[in-house]
Design brief:
Elements: H1 2-7, H2 13-18, H3 31-55, H4 68-93, H5 100-161, H6 164-184, H7 190-210, E1 213-215, E2 228-235, E3 244-249, E4 252-254, E5 257-260, E6 262-268, H8 271-289, H9 291-300
Parallel strand pairs: 2-6
Antiparallel strand pairs: 1-4, 3-6, 4-5
Helix pairs in contact: 6-7
Length: about 300
């Protein structure tokens, strides 16, 4: 064994153990210090010896201390190995590759998310439209409420004060009547009184026409049950039957409505002429219904 070490350029163990006894001892140290130094050196040599023994492999080869370049290369190799190991661990920690069904489900989920987003946007748009429509409806409702309140007020005003224009015009007629009365006091001029009354009457009729009230023509017109009310009849042959001969009270129309009918007297045929007309009508009916006349008509054909 010692010969093998000598061949490899190493000192035998006996020489390696003997060299430290003389190294590191200074002349000025005491005996006790020298003993401690020797013990320390022996301890270090023993540890070094153990390390040398560990460096020998099973084939008896001796571990040789690598150079600095080799150390750097080894460190780089170790770093590369550690880096590769870390990458391998990271790859091993990655989740497994999803299956085709899982990919389809993920695509469906993504599609559903897009649809949900579109629906949310559409819902938001509809919500804005509903809000706008609601605000517009509320504005229209407020306007309608204001209009309704205004119409009710106008209706109430018309119901309470609608006759105000008519009354103002009637006051003018009253003024003329009062003037006529005042001028006739202590006077025997009845023609002037009559003229004043006729003037007031014409003024009153003009006022009525101004507000859509007109008189119904009756005398000399044919009797019309829609506008005339027969109060009496006169049998005469001087006028055709059903003619208005006299008017007891005038009738009036307000625009297209009848305020009151004219109360009139109408003409009628005398009893003899009436009976004669009836007999003539009966004879004509008999002639039309007799069989002889029918036969004559056939023979003539």
């Amino acid at each position: 064994m010692e010969e093998d070490k000598e061949k490899k350029g190493l000192k035998p163990e006996s020489e390696a153990e003997k060299e430290p006894e003389t190294e590191g001892i200074k002349p000025e140290q005491t005996a006790t210090g020298r003993e401690k130094g020797l013990e320390q050196e022996n301890k270090e040599l023993a540890e070094e010896k153990e390390e040398i023994k560990k460096g020998i492999n099973e084939q008896g080869e001796l571990w040789i201390e690598p150079s600095e370049e080799l150390k750097d290369a080894l460190e780089e190799a170790v770093k590369s190995f550690e880096k590769a190991e870390e990458e391998r661990k990271k790859k091993s920690e990655l989740p497994p590759k999803p299956s085709e069904e899982e990919l389809k489900l993920k695509l469906e989920i993504i599609d559903l998310k897009h649809r949900v987003r579109d629906l949310e946007m559409e819902l938001e748009k509809k919500a804005k439209e509903i809000k706008q429509n609601y605000e517009q409806a509320m504005m229209i409702k407020r306007q309608f409420d204001d209009y309704k309140a205004r119409m009710m007020k106008e209706k109430a005003d018309w119901f309470n004060y609608g006759y105000e224009p008519v009354l103002k015009e009637l006051l003018l007629v009253i003024d003329n009547l009062e003037r006529a009365i005042k001028h006739t006091e202590g006077s025997q001029n009845f023609d002037a009184l009559k003229e004043g009354i006729e003037l007031t009457h014409r003024q009153f009729l003009t006022l009525l026409e101004k507000f859509g009230v007109k008189q119904i023509k009756a005398v000399g017109e044919a009797f019309n049950p829609n506008y005339h009310e027969a109060m009496n009849q006169v049998f005469t042959d001087q006028h055709p039957p059903g003619m208005v001969l006299e008017e007891y009270s005038k009738g009036y129309i307000f625009k297209d409505r009848l305020l009151r009918p004219s109360r009139v007297m109408i003409s009628a045929l005398p009893e003899k002429e009436k009976d004669l007309e009836v007999q003539t009508e009966v004879d004509e009916n008999k002639e039309k219904a007799s069989p002889d006349s029918n036969n004559e008509d056939k023979g003539g054909e």
